[in-house]
Write a structure and sequence with these properties.
This is General stress protein 26. It holds the Pfam family Pyrid_ox_like. InterPro entries: Split_barrel_FMN-bd, Stress-Dev_Protein, YdaG_split_barrel_FMN-bd. With about 160 residues, the chain is an alpha+beta fold. About 30% of the residues lie in helices and about 40% in strands. Strands 1, 2, 3, 4, 5, 6, 7 and 8 form an 8-stranded antiparallel sheet that branches. The longest helix is centred in the C-terminal third of the chain and has 15 residues, at about 130-145.
Length: about 160
């Protein structure tokens, strides 16, 4: 289990965005995340009035964050709870050039909202990447053996 968790976090390091959605409508929208492996938390910066903010204004909701690596080394569906956070120190920590593109250089803009996603479980698929995948397909055509397309596992947080 620890190896799978380590693999998940190591592969997630190379991914900075995914599709985030929360109950009740589960509408997935693209969002950049900021990972905190020590607490199994992902942080998101968004704006007041967005569907995600409106969904959690009354309290934490079940949510899902789907990520995929452009090189094909990680695909994951991460489940957890999404809530608003007023942690100004965390906002200072995760504030970056991407966020400032939306809000100017002012992280104290009254429209800025910080979302905390506490992960409970992730279903994960890992591969050797595109080149490894094509190698396995070619090898299977020559040998007749099934290709090794990677690992599939679940991580609980």
């Amino acid at each position: 289990m620890t190896d799978n968790r380590d693999t998940f976090w190591k592969r997630l390091e190379g991914i900075n965005a995914g599709m985030l959605g929360a109950e009740p409508d589960w509408r997935l929208v693209p969002m950049s995340h900021y990972a905190e492996p020590e607490t199994a938390t992902l942080w998101f910066i968004t704006a007041a009035g967005t569907d995600l903010v409106e969904a959690v204004e009354g309290g934490a909701k079940k949510a899902v964050h789907a990520v995929g690596d452009g090189d094909g080394q990680l695909y994951a569906r991460i489940e957890g709870r999404l809530e608003l956070s007023n942690d100004k120190a965390k906002l200072d920590e995760v504030w970056n050039a991407v966020a400032s593109s939306w809000f100017g250089n002012d992280e104290r803009d009254p429209d800025v909202r910080l979302l905390k996603f506490t992960m409970s479980e992730a279903e994960v698929w890992t591969t050797a990447g595109r080149i490894g995948f094509f190698y396995e397909i070619a090898k299977s055509k020559i040998t007749g053996a099934k290709p090794d397309t990677g690992d599939h596992f679940t991580v609980s947080f």
